From TrEMBL, chains A, B:
Protein family according to the UniProt entry: Belongs to the iron-sulfur cluster assembly SufBD family.
Name recorded for this polypeptide: SufD family Fe-S cluster assembly protein
Entries under InterPro entries matching the protein: Fe-S_cluster_assembly_SufBD, SUF_FeS_clus_asmbl_SufBD_core, SUF_FeS_clus_asmbl_SufBD_sf
Domain SUF system FeS cluster assembly SufBD core: 86-304
GO biological process, alphabetically ordered: iron-sulfur cluster assembly
Length: 306, 306
């Protein structure tokens, strides 16, 4: 594991060195910089495509699995397929950050396709933090895809965050929920400079009494551009909620394009979106407390994305 | 004017015979069944395409213009272009209903393209009611297009209603708003049987301090299908709000696809959508007051679409 990977790991996974007493796989520039399995969580290399299989035994409780991916220099174009098989009744946390460092003129890119097969009554907390660093002029690109199938009574919470340094991202999430399954997504996104970000959620509520709750909060600064799409299809008795709140600053631009389809009389679907700048009165209030305008803006954005 | 036109006029414009002391044009199966101008409102036939020009003199106040269109028998495929030139500072009401009667096996269709050029500080109340009647098996189709440009300080309120009998409708509305202009749209839609309805609003908020407020309420019964699209582009300091509330019943299906784009830091845009069935507790409450389930449903829908 090189020094840049070490730095990126700390940023995306809050890890100092390799995790202890936990299953992990550290991906570095398309290779493996470290791996461990536990009795309950088995990580193996795929033989037909780049990537790993993560198998969590039924009933596994309280373990955390780390699978960070790092791109450490210019010109790397990484593509990985990671499949997660979560056994019935398991309850685990998966930390899957990605960092891209680019010191040169070429593009540095990570494309990660994560497929989740979540068993009956299993619970998954999935944490995904994306960051770009380095002084190069080459673009830092992260394109995550998350494909989820949640079996009866299963639950997944996905916390996905991209705070800074990523020049271009296309974030695709697809999910299908069986009976009584639930999916909660919390997205936080900040873009600046000339960056572009596209988010594209699509959830099929297929099983009776399934439900999803998608909330995206984003800030577009500089002349960055964001597009938020979300599709919720209610095919049976189910509940779906999607919300997109965006703050625009400077010359930033944001589009929100949610789509709700109720194809069953027992589907209850709701969406809200709001796009605007920071309210003047909020700024004024903080400035009367002694903050400069910039400090006040910073405080408000921190609160918004917390 | 034939008997069916007389009946349709009453349904869509609440007119008994021709209006008195008002400008009007009654369109019947592609022809003109009556026309009058007033000193301030001039109606003339177009020479290059089917339809009329309606010119409202600057400063005209308090007049109502009736321009209903009727299709009275099977096999008619009517297409009309009506242009409205509303002078600066005018304040008028336009009643533009459309009725399609079909007693036969062929399709009966009305396609109306209405273009509005609304002058500075002018105010327009635009009422549009659509209905299909007749015992024929041929489809009754109404496709209204409304193109609006509102000059500085102008205002338009559009009340558009389709209550029953229209088998297929594509409702397109496009608007561009200049400085301080406002557009308010209230749509009410009910579909039943095998009907389909598509609504497609798109508003460009181009002028500073322009604003729009679009609210659609709809009920989809039987195995009818509705798609609601709305696009609001905030290109400057402006406010935009769009809401879609839909009740589904039986095997009805509804999609809501709103799109907000803020391309200026001073654009404030909001959207909400909710799709679901009538709440059980609302039904129960009315039924404890002595109503049957069907009567209770009817009451709730009437309230919702009022």
């Amino acid at each position: 594991m090189n020094k840049i990977t070490e730095m990126l790991l700390e940023m995306v996974s809050e890890l100092s060195g390799v995790p202890k007493n936990a299953a992990y796989n550290i991906r570095e520039d398309g290779g493996c910089a470290g791996r461990a399995s536990t009795d309950n969580v088995r990580i193996t290399s795929k033989t037909d495509e780049p990537g790993i299989d993560i198998r969590v035994l039924p009933g596994t409780k309280g373990e955390t699995v780390y699978i960070p991916a790092c791109v450490t220099h210019t010109g790397v174009r990484d593509l990985v397929y990671n499949d997660f098989y979560i056994g019935d009744g398991a309850d685990i946390t998966i930390v899957a950050g990605c960092g891209v460092h680019n010191e040169g003129e070429e593009e540095a890119q990570h494309n990660g396709v994560h497929r989740f097969f979540i068993g009956k009554d299993a619970r998954v907390l999935y944490l995904e933090k994306h960051v770009g660093v380095g002084e190069g002029t080459g673009r830092r690109v992260i394109n995550p895809q998350t494909w989820v199938r949640i079996d009866e009574g299963g639950y997944m919470k996905m916390d996905t965050t991209q705070i800074k340094g990523v020049d271009s991202t296309k974030r695709i999430t697809r999910a299908e929920l069986m009976k009584d399954a639930r999916l909660v997504i919390r997205e936080k996104l900040m873009t600046h400079g000339e960056q572009t970000a596209e988010t594209d959620f699509s959830v099929d509520l297929t099983g009776e009494d399934s439900g999803c709750d998608l909330v995206s909060r984003s800030v577009a600064r500089g002349s960055s551009h964001q597009v938020f799409r979300s599709v919720i299809n209610g095919n049976t008795r189910c509940t779906g909620h999607s919300a997109c709140d965006a703050i625009i600053m400077d010359e930033g631009a944001v589009s929100a394009i949610p789509e709700l389809t109720a194809a069953s009389v027992d589907a209850a679907l709701i969406h809200e979106a709001a796009i605007g700048k920071i309210a003047g009165e909020q700024l004024t209030k903080l400035m009367t407390l002694g903050l400069t305008e910039q400090e006040a803006e910073q405080k408000i954005i921190e609160g918004f994305l917390k």
